[in-house]
Amino acid sequence: MLHAGAIGEGERQALIEYADSLPRLHSLLVLHDGEAVVEHVRSGPGLSSPASLKSLSKTILSALAGIAIERGLVEGTDQPLVDLLGEPLPASVDPRVGDITLGHALSLQAGLRSTSGRYYGAWVQSDNWVVHALTRPMVDQPGGEMIYSTGSTHLAGAALVRASGRSLLSMAREWLGEPLEIRIPDWMRDPQGIHFGGNQMRLSPRALARFGEAYRLNGLHDGKQVIPRSWIEASWTPR
């Protein structure tokens, strides 16, 4: 049911008209204080059907990392990534890779050359996405400039998998899907069976809106702390 009092009909129609002018936009869902004020489907499967989140998946992964830390599965964002991965590094790896932390990977400050953009195809066609990402040349120091690279968030996802002994799918369903009462479908995995960390997750617009609403409420849903408040506050802090 639309909560019409939060937005005027003229504003609502203007939003819908603008949405319809965007050729790649399928639907629009706007919440105000948790209530839907605009629900509009231009094309595609609708507001209740899962669609690829693309790189918005990185925010879901970040939430899982925060929950894993709260549950004691990971010490914190300063824990070295290689310690979490728990495997010997290939001889070709730059020694500075040992200084990359979970936090660096999540904030795209690993210092490794990107696996995205023109490098994306070679990375996802490789036999081992984790090794391929780790053996990229270092182009900055860990913790330096942001380098957009889904390889970095995939490393973070792999680290969570190794540290917890669970799949990203099972963590996402238990830690987010169940308490938020949203459906989280299975999604793409790498050749080693690790779910893609930071891309290709699928949620419906309504499910994504509920996840976003939990962030607006500092991790709360229906009176329950789903995502640690401290993690959300840290997530808003510029780096």
Short description:
The chain is mainly alpha-helical and 239 residues long. Helices cover 39% and strands 9% of the residues.
Describe the overall structure:
With 239 residues, this protein is mainly α. The protein folds into 2 domains: 4-41, no CATH class; 51-235, Beta-lactamase (3-Layer(aba) Sandwich). 39% of the residues lie in helices and 9% in strands. It is built from 10 helices and 6 strands; from the N terminus they run H-E-E-E-H-H-H-H-H-H-H-E-H-E-E-H. The chain has helices spanning 9-20, 57-70, 81-85, 102-106, 120-124, 129-134, 150-164, 168-180, 205-216, 229-235; strands spanning 27-32, 35-41, 51-52, 202-203, 220-221, 224-225. Strands 1-2 form a two-stranded antiparallel sheet. A two-stranded antiparallel sheet has the order 3-4. A two-stranded antiparallel ribbon has the order 5-6. Helix 2 crosses helix 8 (168-180). The chain is globular. The N and C termini lie far apart (39 Å). The model has no long low-confidence stretch (mean pLDDT 95).
Q: Structural class from helices and strands?
A: mainly alpha
Examine the secondary-structure arrangement and name the CATH architecture of the largest domain.
3-Layer(aba) Sandwich
What are the segments in which pLDDT stays under 50 over at least 5 consecutive residues?
none
How much strand? 5-15%
The string of secondary-structure elements, in order, is: HEEEHHHHHHHEHEEH
The CATH topology of the largest domain is: Beta-lactamase
**Terminal residue distance:** 39 Å
- What gross morphology would you assign? globular
Rg calculated over all Cα atoms: 19 Å
Helix proportion? 25-40%
Oligomer: single chain
Overall strand count? 6
Instruction: For the largest sheet, list the strands in their spatial order.
Output: 1-2
Most strands sheet: 2 strands, antiparallel
Q: Give the CATH class of the largest domain.
A: Alpha Beta
Put simply, the count of helices is 10
Tell me the number of structural domains: 2
Mean pLDDT: 95
**CATH homologous superfamily designation of the largest domain:** DD-peptidase/beta-lactamase superfamily
